[in-house]
Specification:
alpha+beta, four-stranded mixed β-sheet, three-stranded antiparallel β-sheet, 4 helices, 9 strands, 32% helix, globular, ribonucleoprotein, rRNA binding, Ribosomal_bL9, Ribosomal_bL9_N
């Protein structure tokens, strides 16, 4: 089955890629969850627009990704959140919140979809966050969650 990915799928491809998968995997998993759409000639135009949008958001090259990595790993990044008594957060820290804080620290926009969280962040303190900047470059960032 030929499909077009609408978002990044591990070990398969990135948004806009046209890939060939087994029928059951595409029909029962990827398409119902919105990870992909069926390939048609008309949908190919949509895939091209997805690739163009991804290219505009993407880090230019590996050297640029290494530069951003050095800025992020330079020191801990502070993230201010609303907290109640005893340091409990109202909800959890989202990847969009983290992307905004990392963007300020790096001086460039960081896409929230590149942030990898092991567990949801629901408490104040220091947490480890991984950011996949490029195919070969990932940054391990120390994130300090502090009350606002």
């Amino acid at each position: 089955m030929k499909i077009i990915l609408t978002q990044e799928v591990d070990n398969l491809g990135a948004a806009g890629d046209v890939v060939e998968v087994k029928n059951g995997y595409g029909r029962n998993y990827l398409i119902p969850r919105g990870f992909a759409i069926r390939w048609t000639r008309g949908a190919q135009a949509q895939a091209d627009s997805i690739k163009k949008a991804r290219a505009s958001r993407a880090v230019r090259d590996e050297a640029h990704a290494a530069d951003i990595k050095s800025k992020l790993e330079n020191g801990p990044v502070d993230l201010k959140v609303k907290a109640g008594q005893g340091g409990r957060l109202f909800g959890s820290v989202t990847s969009a919140d983290i992307a905004a804080a990392l963007g300020e620290a790096a001086g460039e926009a960081i896409d929230k979809r590149t942030i990898v969280l092991g567990n949801p962040i629901k408490s104040l303190g220091s947490h480890a966050v991984s950011v996949k900047l490029h195919d070969e470059v990932s940054a391990a960032v120390a994130l300090n969650v502090i009350p606002a």
